Amino acid sequence: MKIVFATNNAHKLSEIKDILGPGFEIVSLAEIGCHEDIPETGMTLEENACQKSSYIVEHYQHNCFADDTGLEVDALGGEPGVHSARYAEGTDHDSEANMRKLLARLEGKTNRKARFRTVISLIIDGEEHQFEGKVEGHIATEKHGTEGFGYDPVFIPEGYDKSFAELGEEIKNQISHRARAVRKLAEYLRS
Fold it and tell me: What is the pTM of this model?
């Protein structure tokens, strides 16, 4: 089955292909000729994921899925949440700046509980379905590890004493928020 994943993020594309396996032909935005910046103006992960998948269906007439992911930190009232990729002012997808701001905002706080949440919006044959994946954990006081991307060096998933960046892709792809959402997506697609 050929399906568009509304991303040009090579890390996400690779992660999704690994999780879904060989039964699906997953193509990126670039592969369908989409180079525009798809609007993400929603106030929630659900709204943003739906905006992206709807845009592709409307403009390119392909079955599509899109995701939106946020890191939600309890002590910060759920921040950075929907703004995770642009958390540090004046930046866009600057992981280092985002982590610096997050660690600075958590300085001196003992409650470091957090969760990563991914929402996938699948539009297939004109019908939308949403799938959520969540992983609980906490924010470390400093960065650890070099694997992964985004906030991986500071997020320690529940049940582990290492960050996502230290655990490596193989373990992360089994336990991550995106893996959990993608498994639900895959179950639906296979049914």
Answer: 0.89
CA distance 127 to 191: 15
* Coil, strand or helix at 154: coil
pLDDT category of residue 3 using cuts at 50, 70 and 90: very high
Phi, psi values for residue 95, rounded to 5°: -60, -40
Please, are residues 3 and 63 in contact by the beta-carbon 8 Å criterion?
Answer: yes
Q: What is the pLDDT of residues 55-91, one digit of tens each?
A: 999 999 999 999 999 999 999 999 999 999 889 987 6
Evaluate whether 181 touches 162 at the Cβ level (below 8 Å).
Answer: no
Instruction: Please give the positions annotated as active site.
Output: 68
- Here the contacts of 47-52 (C-beta below 8 Å, separation 24 or greater) are 48/82, 48/119, 49/119, 49/120, 49/121, 49/130, 50/121, 50/128, 50/130, 52/6, 52/121
Instruction: Give the phi and the psi of residue 2 in degrees, each rounded to 5.
Output: -95, 130
